[in-house]
């Protein structure tokens, strides 16, 4: 296990998660149109960034459990983690839904509305922390 790389991933996940929470708070409380616009835009980018970091984490965990394959998809990685008991069913479902939303944003097709993304993040807010705890369990 490359602990230094894992530590960087955990720090990046924490920072991204914290920034997502700040955007949510601004969206919930601000009346400033420009600030709201910037927070909504940032929320989209942070959500995509979180998933990019997640892909790095998946690679490390797959190597640790001896299931890594070059070119393995995130979807297949998540299925392996579910089979191995690394993810519970709720977290697996959150990540599957999130992956689809992330792809819609990143590839710019049928992009989710700001409201859809916001509601998804708020609904599954605790799962972001859970991912960080899973990552930390490999230190």
UniProtKB/TrEMBL annotation:
Cite the InterPro entries for this sequence: HepT-like, HepT-like_sf
- A molecular-function term among this protein's GO annotations: RNA nuclease activity
What GO cellular-component annotations does this UniProt entry give? toxin-antitoxin complex
For this UniProt record, the keywords arranged alphabetically read as follows: Hydrolase, Nuclease, Toxin-antitoxin system
> From which residue to which does the signal peptide run?
none
Family the entry assigns: Belongs to the HepT RNase toxin family.
What name does the UniProt record give this protein?
Answer: DUF86 domain-containing protein
Please name the source species.
Clostridium sulfidigenes
